[in-house]
Structures are given as C-alpha cells and as structure tokens.
Amino acid sequence: SVLPATYFVSIDFQGKAIEVVSTSGASTTKINGLGNTTNGVTFSTGETPLSILDGFSIENGTQRGIYVYGTSPTLKNLALENLGSQSFDGSGIYIDAGSPSLESVTLKDNTAYYGGGVFVVNQGNPLFSNCILENNYAAYGGGIYLDSGSLTLIGSTFLRNSTYYYGGGIY
Predict the structure, then answer these.
(1) CA of 71: how far to CAs of 12, 47, 123, in Å?
(2) Cα–Cα distance between 156 and 9 in angstroms, integer?
(3) What is the pLDDT of residues 149-168, one digit of tens each?
(4) CA-based end-to-end distance of the chain
(5) Of the candidates 91, 89, 92, which has an alpha carbon nearest to the alpha carbon of residue 114?
(6) How far apart are CA 54 and CA 56, in angstroms?
(7) Alpha carbon 86 to its chain's center
(8) Exposed / middle / buried, residue 131 (Cβ in 10 Å: 0-12, 13-18, 19+)
(9) Has residue 17 got a pLDDT over 90?
(10) Is the dihedral of CA 1, 37, 104, 72 positive or negative?
(11) CA distance 151 to 148
(12) Quick one: residue 18, left, alpha or beta (phi over 0 = left, psi -120 to 50 = alpha)?
C-alpha cells in the first residue's frame, strides 16, 4: 500500500507480479515525472494481470504516462492528465503488442501526434472498462489511435476528443 503524497519517480514493474495500490486514490496519490522522464510507469518485462497499478494520478511527463510492451498488466482507478508535451505517439498510454486491462481509468487533456490518449500498435489488444477519454488532442486519433490490433470497450465514455486531421474519438 502507498500512502497519499506526490512521488517524484518513474516506476518499472520489472516483470514482478505485485500490486502497487494507493490507500487514498488518484486525487491524493500522484506519480510526477518531473517533466523529464520518458515513461511514468513501464510494463515491459513479461508482466501479467497480477501486475497491478491501482489508484494513482500520473502527471507532468513530457512523453508518456504508461508504456506497455508485450505485457498484460491491470490498470485500475488511474488519472492520466496533461501528458505528452513532447510525445509523438500515445502520450497517456502507449501499448505495443500488449493486452492490458484498464478499469476506471481517466485519460484527459493529453496531446500527441498519434493517439493523444492512447496509441495501440503491433497487434495490441487492450480492454477498456468504465474508462473516460476526455479532451485529448492529436493530429490523428485524439482519444485512441489503433494502428493494429483490436479494442474492447465496455461502458467507456469519449468526450470532446479532437484532431487536426481524423478520428476525434478513435482512429
């Protein structure tokens, strides 16, 4: 369990099946990327659904909030906001060949060229359940850019996502 505070760190789960859970939720427990980290949280070493991140706000990263590469972590009760001032793709979450489960995750006010909120590539297969994608911006795919793979959306909401070209909600 993690106590409420702002933590100036980036986290790499390093393949561990652990639960990193906030005791008080995303409004009071924050991971701050200091504006100079590539990824706030990384899952790239064989993580399974037993690798759980629950109850955090991820903020102030110039690139991405969460990076998922070929893994299947569980992401719950998260807020990823105002990310990507220097991100080319997937400023909120970048999913490369992964199948993460996202439950009650809010992606808001994120910016990238492809996929302001989420970018999915190399047959990624994320599950979104009760998520909110709001006011994200990209040239293509304001909310989600699906390059390849598939999406499962259950009870999720897209609000005011926009693009310069195509795909305000999903491209």
Answers:
(1) 13, 5, 12
(2) 29
(3) 999 999 999 999 999 999 99
(4) 37
(5) 89
(6) 6
(7) 16
(8) buried
(9) yes
(10) negative
(11) 10
(12) beta
Q: How far apart are CA 27 and CA 30, in angstroms?
A: 8
State the residue for tokens 């009870």.
155
- Beta-ladder partners of 93: 66, 118
Task: Tell me the residue type at 24.
Answer: S
- Residue 68 to residues 14, 36, 119: CA-CA distances in angstroms? 12, 19, 10
Q: H or E stretch including 21? A: strand 19-21
| C-alpha span between 16 and 45 (Å, rounded) | 8
Q: What CA dihedral angle connects 97, 64, 141 and 130, to 10 degrees?
A: 80
Residue range 37-92, pLDDT digits in tens: 678 899 999 999 999 999 999 987 657 899 999 999 999 999 999 888 667 889 99
Interval 9-15 mean pLDDT? 93
* Strand partners for 156: none
Q: Which residue from 97, 104, 89, 112 is spatially nearest to 53, judged by alpha carbons?
A: 104
Residue tagged 């699906």 (tokens):
146
